[in-house]
Amino acid sequence: MSRHRPRSASPAPKGARKDARAKSTAAKSTAAKSTAAKSTAAKSTAAKFTAAKSTRAKSTAAKSPPAKSAPAKSPPARSASRGSGSAKPAAAKSVHAKQPHAATRGARSTAGPRAQRASARRDAILAAALAEFSKRGFATTRIDDVARRARVAKGTIYLYFKDKDTLFQELVRTTLVPTLARLSAPLPEGLPTRALFEAFVEAFVDEIVATPRVEIMRLMIAEGKQFPALAEFYYREVVSKGLAAMRALIERGRARGEINVAALARNPQLAIAPLMVTVVWNGLFGKFAKVDARDMMKTQLDLMFGRGRPE
Q: Is 223 within 8 Å of 138 (Cβ atoms)?
């Protein structure tokens, strides 16, 4: 018995295969075009929707002028607040704008206190110098000693005084000269000459003899010979002015018939000799036998004017 194999289908002709492939390609192209058209339509729809939404937003914004009018009015309000100073933001802005002027005004306002502090520091240096000169003498006192007592830097002293000599000279000007300057003032006509002498004695005792200032006089007596320049300064600023004032008082008393000794006008040192004796005596022997400057001068005035005050 013979076996038969089934026949396979005969292959399609070549032309049929080409037609099938062309149809498949055309179908794919049509599908791609359809997809692209749908995408374009979707994009166009989205764009139209976005444009419509933007148009509605603009229309809504255009229809709401009251909401925009409030901010529009705010610049005039800020301008007014600058003038009146009522609004805080505007005031702060104004302060920043005028800050240089405020700084200048601050510097002017602190000029007074700064000058006061400088004056106080200068006075402290002079007080320290008086204490150091009285304790150590002029020759052995150092600027370092003065600075330490005044509680300032050594360099600070040189901001006010050139050197130790200048410091001492200013000390004399501020402590002794003002008291003697009163004698140079015009003499009143109505008072007796003795009363004027007594007023000077009171001021001299209260302001010099009974205070640490007297140490300046003692220092000059003790060390003046060693420092000729300081001795010359002291004579010019203190001694010569005091003697001129004494001579003027004596001549006044002579002209009024209150003083009979003519030699006093030639030797005015005699008129104030008791005060100088008191300064030297009490500096050396005051702990043992202190003398009273007022009582010494009263005795001298009795000798000059006679016993008792002239009527």
A: yes
